[in-house]
Here is the input.
Amino acid sequence: MTRVPSVKPFGACYRTENVPGTRVGYAVPDIQLVLHSNDVVWRINGANSMVTVRRDVICLGFLDGGVNARTSVVIGGLQLEDNLIEFDLASNRLGFSSTLLGLRTNCANFNFAPTASGRYVM
Here is the structure.
């Protein structure tokens, strides 16, 4: 990938030539957020990590909070798009999927009605 000058507010920007698109966004390395164990990993792929800022330029969609950041980490709308998040308040747990695009669906057409088994149909 060829680095190009930053496009505010993003820092790391690249030319799109030689970066093929896939069903799950640009073909860039996955970002893996390893939570409490190596078995609990949230994979963020090109659709949720790269922002198209011009027809020929993409940028890493994470922002630097600065020297006096108000929070340590913020997961933004781009990272959450087409991922399912489940808040289990009774068990004080958080569940998540990686992108639904890999399953050939997205949040816009996901069937949120549970089946008789309690599972959701995709």
About this structure: The chain has one domain: 3-64+77-103.
